[in-house]
Amino acid sequence: MAGPGTLEQWDVSPTQIGSPTLGDILQAITASCEALEMKIETLGVEFGQLKDDHSHLAERVATVEREVADVPATMTGAQARLTELENKTANGLAELQHGQNAVGYARELGLPSPTLCCGWAAHNRTLTADVTGHTGT
């Protein structure tokens, strides 16, 4: 009984006009195999490129993850520096107020300005350097 995939189903006879010969069939199969081999080779090259891309991306993700992990420490350091600068600013403002008060008292008493004596000018430059990071000289 003829079923799917049996020779009887195809009823191929080399005597029929236009029928493919066994050589024609083998040649077609060989050409198909060669085309498949070329496609497999192309896919292999593409797969290799994808693996390289994946490896590069995995390295980049790891780098970004490390950088993100460093953010809290950087923020903590920045917050500590900001607090330090806020404290120096508050101290500087208190010193400035103290100096302004001294100038006011000196004027009331008719004395020379404390910024011209007693080292206030040097003190103010040091204070400015502490608060702003430059001496102004």
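The above is record 1. Record 2 follows with the same two-line structure.
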Amino acid sequence: MSIVTIKEIGGDNIHLEQITVTGSVVQERIIEHVSVMSIMYFPGHADYAPATVNDTLIEIIDRIADISGVLLPIGGTSSDFLSGDRTWKPVTKNTVGLSNVDDTSDLNKPISNATQIALNSKEDTILTANSNYFFAGDKTWKPITKNTVGLSNVDDTSDLNKPISNATQIALNSKEDTILTANPNYFFAGDKTWKPITKNTVGLDQLTNDTQLKLADLDTDATLSANSDTKIPSQRAVKTFVDTHHWDAGTF
């Protein structure tokens, strides 16, 4: 593609240059008896019909066979663009397909409908409250108390200082007081007192504490023939033995 510039020389003469996009001059030509009002540019689109410029100039440029350029209309500004109908048009938000976009800086943009819908499903900022409060289902701060956790009947008493409960007292009422230690020879009687253990206690009140001799250990043999260290001769056996062996012998 090349750019064709037309510059007014003076009077009815113009200076035409065909220049490449890199700035190299392809050719220069002076066209007489044509005047222009400003510098014009010609992109290489020969199939577009020129418009809003002097018809004589258009015909001259279009008929120069060795000029590969298309005449642009006179006029336009840095904010304009050449449209398909070869006219200058202002560049607007409609031009670039942004007709619904507002010219508002990011900081000043309003809340969009979609954002507002999303915000409507959010809670307002929850204000800070006392650390002993909780956020209740009705969206208000409420103090945390024993009622809150369903312990309205619980007393704020340490374990060491808790009183005896009614249920515990009933259980204690069915228990004995601590039984004091007594002499090991005593027993706890039915009247809940310590008593000494005696022969009367065990139903042996007729017995003495004297040494007792078993009947089986008495030997009634008057001859004392058993000659035992464990047998005890009865009184009768002794008398008979003495009478028999010594009285008759006259040793007394």
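Residues 2-90 form one domain.
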